[in-house]
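Entry:
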Amino acid sequence: MSRAAPALLVLSASAIVLAFPRTSLSSLTFVALAPTLVVTARARSPHEAFRAGFAMGFLAHVGLLWWIARLYATEITYPWMRLPMMLALAGFEALFYGAAFWAWHRVHAHRPWLWPGVWVATEYARSLTSLAFPWTVLANALATQPLFLQPAALGGVWLLDLGVATMNLLAFEATRRRRAGLAWVLGVVAWGLLGAALMGEERGTVHVAIVQPNALPEFKWHERGRSRVLGDLEDLSFAAAASLGSSGQRLLVWPETALPVVLRPHGGAELWLTRLVDELGVPLIAGTLGTTWFRGEEMLTNAAVVVSPGAGVTGRYDKMHLVPFSEKMPFSDLVPALKRINFGQGDYARGKDPTPLRVGGMDASVLICFEAILPSLVRRHVRAGGELLVNITNDSWFGNTGAPQQHASIALIRCVEHRRWMVRAANTGVSMVVDPWGRVHARGGLFDRAVIVGAVSPRRDLTPYAILGDWVGWLGALAFVWAVVPRRTRP
């Protein structure tokens, strides 16, 4: 490996980090991988290319995921585990980078055009199984530029990722051929023109209000602070209802676990919530805790409920994708012995039904917390009949880092993939109303106690991505297989 190789790897990793929020220099995604493509093309073996790709990926993920080492200590049973957790996750994600550049070394001389598919395959693999964490998919960095998001309606974030990888391949080729540099420029222009052609306009017809209570962990989950949290919810909800007026379709949304109690049928919390909604006169989607029975044991669920004026609780959704090592030990339902390994994680029951919740004359698909970063799961919700996306989350445990902005920006891509409006309610921010083209129409600040008001419209049309699914990811998998199959040589 050349003396310049370490500097080039650091350059790639730095570009990836800067492309994401908070800095949001998203145009860097079009060139960020090129320095590592140069290094790994010159590697002496595929194994050396793997090590270089792994090193770059590890540095990039440490830069993107450092917030894990800063998580609120009150939210972590063993605070000393935050740094090891972050390093372990960065190492795990870097394995996929290593695999991509290992395959690139095998094809760069004779089949370089396979690279975009190879890259998409390794990115797509990170979205599968209960360990899925596609937070740092490179195309996610484009979320701050709606113009470049529009092809997602055709092939999801994976089509965007394919485009990003292609632009990086052209940037690599530009180091050897001038014409490739011109092709890179034309590619960026063509992408922008396609985005402009796919953009649209739509006015919301349903008035919505988001309550952002800014309930900090040290108060929310303790008896001494719970009455204060409930009082804040009540005050903000009356202010929100007043801002919506008294006519037309209206909707009020609270964040994930906004009601920090177990909501049991006919229990005190449910009676309080029903009375409040009757007084407000506005239907409510609220995050809370539910219960269900699994293998003869009562278990908690991370839930959202619909409460309608005069009708009480009329629907509930239980979170389907639980955060690994936080809400659930991965694969513990299949191998119960894994529950004996205690990192301080919860043991929530997994929801199984993506059926939307009927509220205010609409079918709303509720996505709780990290569920909004999972393309295939959101597609299941929309295919089940979702006319509106409602993302409720509690990002207070991220603290004042770049993670809340990163989390919020990824959700914008889900709107474009399915041409759906989104109402995003976050306990401490970022709460927002987003249109089907990924543009933010109303937004709350971080760590603000606020009410955010906007308007949305239910939609039932299905995009090509909603119909066809992850076809780009599967094509990428075929490209990866082709890349690793030994190339025949003539005798």
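The mean pLDDT is 92.
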